[in-house]
Structure formats: structure tokens, C-alpha cells
Write a structure and sequence with these properties.
Helix content is 27%, strand content 22%. The chain has 358 residues and is an alpha+beta fold. 45% of the residues are buried. It binds 1,6-di-O-phosphono-beta-D-fructofuranose (FBP) and magnesium ion (MG) (2 copies). 1,6-di-O-phosphono-beta-D-fructofuranose is lined by residues 63, 92, 116, 119-121, 210, 246-248, 264, 276.
Length: 358
């Protein structure tokens, strides 16, 4: 049964008809989808293909590379650098922009691709969810690319998306007209539009944060999390649920499906790293996808998409998801910065708890 199904190619033709870079952008996104299919095949084969395990060396982030980090990186590069739409690529796995296979500068395109080839790679060896994240920016056609050209704020993205290699493989993307999800039909090898115009509920009772970092959090994050944990006995007057999948892609996907808030906030571990996630190829594309679905994305102290990047692999605090929850967290940061937040009181000792002080 294929009648009535919207394939990725058909969707792109319709969405990009009026777009200034329509033809090149459509061709590039189809190439990204081809890379996603080959990464999906590798993740599905797992140990059978010899794809699991770590390599000896670390990447530019000082993190140990998994075999799949490298294979996924090569898959994206191979699929996207030959078609003439790109002027340059930046990958999480390389310090500097990647050289293009297409060496003839006059035939270079006007688009830049920045990507995280395999997100959540610590999940590879436990057969957990992993993903790929990408963002497309503009460049002046024909001129040589330098690292500075990639330092554009998230508001300048022309396309953004991710692939989730879960029980099924999904590709979720935006070109600025809503956020849309496609599911890979493995039998025919096509991405089919299955989740058009995703919408994130404004309110939610689900949050995601790596609680093992609690001792490094700032007071506004402690305040938010402790209020969630206090549930119906605290100021929120309702119970909250918590999730942690250790793959940003999977967390954002859950939020796009049913709402919630995700936090990888600023912490005090290392002043050189004011967050865990990378601005250009993790935070920005996800922030745009979330905003296009009616959610909000913030550093806690401002809209993520408006942040001016200063380095290719810059890390930033990330708080995103259901609008009301993100706004509440921004308020807590404002109140804290103004010295006006409430002193932190453990939920065990608040006025409605068992240990209430009389
Ligand atoms: O569970 P941890 O160690 O706090 O880190 C999880 C975070 O790190 C990441 O895995 C970083 O991505 P990479 O795997 O691309 O380095 C995010 O996906 C995730 O949100
Ligand atoms: Mg990542
Ligand atoms: Mg990665």
C-alpha cells in the first residue's frame, strides 16, 4: 500500500517550492536521509556487523570515540559532500571544518552542514537509543570556507533535524514551516511522513535531568527539581515523573511526542565548559525543532537561538520543552540573579510534609 503516503522527497518538493535555496536544500536533505539509512543499518546490525565497542583514541571533545561515532561520521560525510550543494561541513568528531570531496570551488554550493553524527554514543554498547543531529546554514557561494563562517546564531538556520535509531528509525525535521516526523519503511527504503505538524503541550509533569550532577547545579535548578520531587505535597501541587535516556535525541523526541522539559543546565564543574551540549550541532537544531513545535528553548538566561556562537564546539546550558515549564525555569534564574529567589527548603521539611516544623 503506497497510495496516499507522503514520502520525504514529495514532502520536500511541496515545502521547498517557494524557498530561495529550495532545490539545493531538498537535494542535501535527501543526501542526509541516505546517510541516516546507512547509519540505521549499522546500528541495527550491532555486534553482528562488528560495529560495537570503543576505539583507543579520543575525539576533539576529549571523549573516547566509539566505532560507531567514526562510522556514522564517515557515512554523513560520504553521502553529503559530493552533490555540489555544500560549501563546507563541521562534525562533532573533527576540530576543524572538513575538506570537501568536491574540490572545484566554482562548483561549490551555498550551504553549510554542521552535525553530530552519533548522539548518545554511550548507549551503543547497551543497545539503547542513539541518533544523529544536523543543522544547515547559508554561505556565500564560491568563496572559500573558514571556521568563522559556521559561527551563526540558531535563528539563521535554514533546516534542522535529527534521526532517532530506536525501535523504528525516524527522521524529524524543520525548514521553518513546522516540525515533521518521518518513519523509515525498511521494506521499501523510504521515509514516510507519519507525524505532521508536531505540537508540544504547553504544560507538562515530566522532566529529564542527570541527577548525578546535582552537586554542581545552580540554585534555580535545585529549586525547580526539588519542587518537582515534592510533587503534590509541594508548591507545584501535582506529581511529576522523571526520565533519563542519556541521548539528547531520544529526550527531545519524547518531548515532541508528549511534552516535558529537558535540562542539561549550567553547572560549576569546569568554568571552561558552561554546559554539556554543543551549541552548533546539538542545541541549535533541537531548539529550532522545539520552537517550531510550539515549545521553548533557553539557556535559562535567554533564548538559545539568539546566542552568538564564539567557537565551533562551544558548549552551552540547555533547557527546552513545554513552554510553561521553560518559562518557569527562566523566571527562577531571573529571581536568583536578582537575589530575589526563595531560600531553598528541602521538600522533606516543608509545611505540608511529615517533618513539618511547628
Ligand atoms: O548521561 P550523561 O553522561 O550526562 O550525558 C548524556 C548527554 O551526552 C550526550 O550523549 C552527548 O552527545 P554525544 O554522544 O554526541 O557526545 C547527549 O546526547 C546526552 O544528553
Ligand atoms: Mg551528541
Ligand atoms: Mg556524538
Amino acid at each position: 500500500m503506497s497510495e496516499g503516503r507522503t514520502t520525504l522527497s514529495k514532502f520536500l518538493i511541496e515545502q521547498l517550492r517557494e524557498h530561495p535555496e529550495g532545490a539545493d536544500l531538498g537535494a542535501l536533505l535527501v543526501d542526509v536521509a541516505a546517510a541516516v539509512k546507512s547509519i540505521a543499518a549499522m546500528t541495527a546490525k550491532g555486534a553482528l556487523g562488528g560495529f560495537l565497542g570503543a576505539l583507543e583514541h579520543t575525539n576533539v571533545q576529549g571523549e573516547q570515540q566509539k566505532k560507531l561515532d567514526v562510522l556514522a561520521d564517515e557515512a554523513v560525510q560520504r553521502a553529503c559532500d559530493w552533490g555540489g550543494q555544500l560549501a563546507g561541513l563541521v562534525s562533532e568528531e573533527h576540530e576543524a571544518p572538513l575538506p570537501l570531496a568536491q574540490t572545484d570551488a566554482t562548483r561549490r554550493g551555498a550551504l553549510l552542514l554542521v552535525y553530530d553524527p552519533l548522539d548518545g554514543s554511550s548507549n551503543t554498547d547497551v543497545n539503547g537509543a542513539v541518533g544523529t543531529i544536523f543543522s544547515v546554514l547559508r554561505h556565500s557561494a564560491g568563496t572559500p570556507v573558514v571556521a568563522q563562517d559556521f559561527l551563526q546564531s540558531g535563528t539563521q538556520q535554514v533546516a534542522a533535524g535529527y534521526a532517532l535509531y530506536g525501535a523504528s528509525t525516524m527522521l524529524v525535521l524543520t525548514v521553518g514551516q513546522g516540525t515533521h516526523g518521518f518513519t523509515l519503511d525498511r521494506e521499501v527504503g523510504n521515509f514516510i511522513l507519519t507525524h505532521a505538524h508536531l505540537r508540544i503541550p504547553e504544560d507538562s509533569s515530566e522532566y529529564a535531568i542527570n541527577a548525578s550532577n546535582a552537586r554542581f547545579w545552580e540554585p534555580p535548578v535545585h529549586r525547580y527539581v526539588s519542587e518537582c520531587q515534592a510533587g503534590r505535597s509541594g508548591v507545584r501541587e501535582r506529581d511529576f515523573n522523571m526520565r533519563w535516556i542519556a541521548a539528547f535525541v531520544a529526550e527531545v523526541h519524547r518531548i515532541l511526542m508528549r511534552g516535558g522539559v529537558f535540562l542539561y543546565p549550567k553547572d560549576g564543574r569546569d568554568p571552561a565548559k558552561p554546559g554539556r551540549l554543543r551549541l552548533l550541532y546539538e542545541a541549535n537544531p533541537m531548539a529550532w525543532l522545539v520552537e517550531q513545535a510550539g515549545g521553548a528553548a533557553s539557556t535559562g538566561r535567554g533564548r538559545l537561538l539568539e546566542l552568538a556562537p564564539s567557537a565551533l564546539h562551544q558548549r552551552v546550558p540547555v533547557i527546552l520543552g513545554s513552554r510553561q515549564e521553560v518559562q518557569r525555569l527562566e523566571r527562577y534564574h531571573r529571581e536568583h540573579d536578582a537575589g530575589a529567589d526563595q531560600p531553598f527548603v528541602s521538600p522533606l521539611f516543608n509545611e505540608r510534609s511529615l517533618f513539618a516544623r511547628s
